[in-house]
Inverse folding.
């Protein structure tokens, strides 16, 4: 028999189409009533951001175990599909496709830095997979497929700045990391200082590999501010707090920070270097509400080596339970039905208190807390109940424009 | 900004104080560079090994200090003894297992030591985790008028000078210094005169590593100690060593002074971002004008 080019191409195309489709058809058939519901996870477990990512995955595992122990969701067990993104944006893109196309998970929780979120969000939009971003960030994401459960500046910075100014004075000096988070947060700080009748003496940005803060410390001394507002990020920038203390400035000018504590600074720095630093987040491990202590106990029982359990971990736990509540209310894991259920004002009483999904922004209405460091631990000073994501609400209305899909850079 | 509010009579005093503080910053920047670069200058300048794991040697020194200090060892012993001894031993092991097969193969040493740096980062992360470690800065602060600085800054400057003097003395006045210089110049001739070049290489690499470890130990109290901290140092160290040229002492000292000055003054009068930019720009211009480095032109006969 002679094989013509045409027939060869034809058989090859049909054959490979069948081969490609086979697993999908087979798995479709195998997905009976008892097959597990897959929960996707994209978090850094190695590389510079691993200290933040580890407790987030721990939270997901504990949440899944709890739901499975209680009989699962819609009568089906949950199963975690986790990929370590290695603090590498390329890995995020790659594993996002894998979760959406190969693993076909029902939902994805993940993303830590804003850069990583923006790398994966379009992928999940395109392949129509529900996405939860459970990290505090600069605000402005407006996307019906995405739910952001962490705090935004209107919920934390807006509380931190006036509190610090009332305590110390009206002249502020801002130091921040030189990438989108630091730049945007510095803008928010400037806005809130001015709103409260204060003055910003200077704003300095630092690349992430700066380790010598000598000239900056001299500059701050020359400017004589009443307080320093810091959005410094990462291990290298921790040098600032040590050099600041060793120059004897710690007792002279107080510091308030939107990032201090996210990589466990209070317990790793010396008490003289961290005492009195002010911070505001959506959750602190030291919160003594019954829900919080129970949650911390559960995580520590299963993962004794867990680093500090920060807002990132608590918001992941709460984001997971909000999704589960959405599935229960919808009676299905279908993306559209779950989104509609969540938009109906689903809430969850988590470790940080009540968390409600805000329909117009797809962000969370949640409690915020203000604390200062005392003897290597946070001591919570103020509780701000049920704070709305007003920054994002100013630009984003998904009730009016459900088809919107972008991150607004909020003009300040 | 603030100057307008200051009465005229105080003006000159104030600016004197500021000048002293800025001078201290410059000295501090130069001293940190000297400490960071000396070990690399020995390894790269003398042995022509491009050690991309240099930053990780700094990191190991910092970890050795932090961990032994937190285990109860006196902080000074942890910095000045534990860090250099530990990293020196690591250096000798690395030389025996890896580097000695690669002498004269410049590009291969880059690849091998880059792999080594990834390995060390991975190992330290696995053992100690990814969180920041630290020891408090010893010594206190002092004030110059309205400004404050720390005694530790002065201590770093003193250590940098001491180390420069020590290496100069060893290379210039001891038998070991003579032998090692001879071996670097002409290993064949040295071997013919009854010296084992392999042993000299091993010792020199070990000493370079130990100096780097000492730098890590000394910088540990004023930096955030994490497994990935080396990356912040390695580029600057290489630029300084290349800018300094082949004379270990004169080259490192002059290049550190120059780049430290440019970086700190740039950071003070503009922003930290431009401080870094001016440093790299001036390095490019320097290498264009003086391809052999500063000591290739000005301190030809020096060490």
């Amino acid at each position: 028999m002679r094989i013509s080019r045409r027939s060869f191409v034809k058989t090859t195309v049909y054959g490979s189409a069948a081969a490609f489709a086979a697993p999908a058809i087979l798995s479709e058939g195998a997905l009976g009533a008892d097959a597990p519901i897959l929960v996707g996870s994209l978090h850094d477990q190695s590389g510079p951001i691993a200290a933040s990512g580890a407790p987030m995955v721990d939270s997901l595992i504990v949440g899944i175990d709890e739901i499975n122990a209680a009989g699962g969701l819609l009568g089906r067990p949950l199963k975690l599909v986790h990929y370590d993104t290695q603090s590498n944006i390329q890995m995020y893109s790659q594993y996002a496709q894998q979760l959406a196309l190969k693993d076909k998970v029902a939902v994805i929780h993940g993303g830590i830095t804003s850069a990583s979120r923006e790398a994966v969000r379009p992928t999940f939009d395109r392949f129509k997979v529900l996405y939860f971003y459970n990290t505090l960030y600069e605000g402005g994401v407006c996307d019906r497929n995405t739910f952001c459960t962490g705090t935004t500046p209107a919920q934390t910075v807006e509380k931190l700045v006036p509190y610090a100014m009332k305590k110390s004075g009206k002249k502020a000096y801002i130091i921040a990391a030189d990438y989108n988070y630091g730049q945007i947060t510095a803008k928010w700080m400037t806005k809130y200082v001015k709103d409260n009748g204060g003055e910003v003496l200077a704003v300095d940005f630092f690349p992430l590999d700066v380790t010598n803060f000598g000239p900056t410390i001299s500059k701050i001394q020359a400017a004589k501010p009443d307080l320093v507002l810091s959005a410094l990020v990462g291990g290298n920038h921790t040098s600032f707090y040590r050099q600041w203390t060793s120059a004897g400035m710690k007792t002279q000018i107080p510091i308030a920070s939107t990032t201090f504590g996210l990589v466990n600074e209070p317990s790793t720095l010396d008490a003289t270097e961290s005492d009195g630093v002010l911070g505001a987040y959506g959750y602190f491990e030291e919160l003594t509400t019954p829900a919080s202590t129970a949650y911390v106990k559960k995580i520590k029982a299963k993962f004794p080596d867990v680093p500090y359990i920060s807002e990132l971990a608590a918001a992941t736990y709460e984001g997971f339970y909000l999704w589960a509540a959405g599935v229960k209310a919808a009676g299905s894991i279908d993306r559209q039905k779950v989104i509609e259920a969540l938009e109906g004002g689903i809430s969850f009483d988590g470790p940080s208190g009540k968390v409600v999904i805000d329909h117009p922004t797809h962000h969370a209405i949640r409690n915020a807390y203000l604390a200062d460091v005392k003897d290597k631990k946070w001591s919570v000073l103020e509780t701000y109940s049920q704070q709305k994501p007003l920054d994002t609400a100013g630009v984003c209305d998904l009730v009016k424009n459900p088809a919107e899909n972008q991150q607004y850079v909020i003009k300040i | 900004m603030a100057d307008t509010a200051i009465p005229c009579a105080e003006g000159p005093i104030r600016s004197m104080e500021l000048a002293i503080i800025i001078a201290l910053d410059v000295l501090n920047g130069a001293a940190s560079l000297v400490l960071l670069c000396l070990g690399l200058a020995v390894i790269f300048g003398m042995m022509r090994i491009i050690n991309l794991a240099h930053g990780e040697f700094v990191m190991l020194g910092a970890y050795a200090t932090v961990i032994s200090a937190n285990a109860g060892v006196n902080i000074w012993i942890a910095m000045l003894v534990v860090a250099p001894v530990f990293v020196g031993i690591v250096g000798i092991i690395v030389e025996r297992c890896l580097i000695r097969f690669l002498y004269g193969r410049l590009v291969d040493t880059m690849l091998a030591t880059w792999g080594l740096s990834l390995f060390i980062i991975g190992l330290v992360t696995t053992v100690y985790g990814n969180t920041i470690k630290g020891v408090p800065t010893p010594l206190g602060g002092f004030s110059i008028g309205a400004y404050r600085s720390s005694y530790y800054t002065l201590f770093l400057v003193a250590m940098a000078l001491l180390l420069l003097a020590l290496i100069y003395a060893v290379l210039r006045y001891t038998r070991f210094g003579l032998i090692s210089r001879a071996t670097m110049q002409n290993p064949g001739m040295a071997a013919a005169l009854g010296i084992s070049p392999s042993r000299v290489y091993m010792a020199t690499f070990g000493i370079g590593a130990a100096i780097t470890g000492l730098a890590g130990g000394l910088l540990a109290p004023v930096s955030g100690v994490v497994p990935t901290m080396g990356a912040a140092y390695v580029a600057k160290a290489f630029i300084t060593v290349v800018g300094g040229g082949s004379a270990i002492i004169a080259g490192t000292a002059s290049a550190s002074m120059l780049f430290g000055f440019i970086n700190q003054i740039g950071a003070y009068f503009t922003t930290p971002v431009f401080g870094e930019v001016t440093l790299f720009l001036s390095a490019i211009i320097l290498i264009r004008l003086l391809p052999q480095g500063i000591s290739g032109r000005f301190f030809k006969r020096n060490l």
